[in-house]
Structure to design on (81 residues):
């Protein structure tokens, strides 16, 4: 699975590279507010809650993909994927 288009669009608009899913958030310039925004995008698209503890554990975009995969198993993604 790759990042959903809603998330890649957000990252592109923010000027954050997203081609290396294993790059650390620090190395690509992703901060706490970006993490919260991505969590809200997941919530909007899947119609389910992403807890603070879920997104606070993210270190890489691969972690975001894992969260999307887990959320998608609970509640199918409604947009994009």
């Amino acid at each position: 699975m790759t990042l959903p288009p809603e998330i890649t669009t957000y990252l592109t608009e923010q000027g954050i590279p997203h081609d290396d899913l294993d790059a650390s958030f620090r190395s690509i310039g992703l901060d706490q507010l970006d993490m919260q925004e991505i969590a809200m995008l997941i919530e909007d698209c899947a119609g389910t809650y992403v807890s603070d503890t879920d997104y606070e554990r993210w270190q890489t975009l691969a972690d975001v993909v894992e969260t999307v995969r887990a959320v998608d198993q609970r509640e199918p993604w409604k947009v994009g994927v």
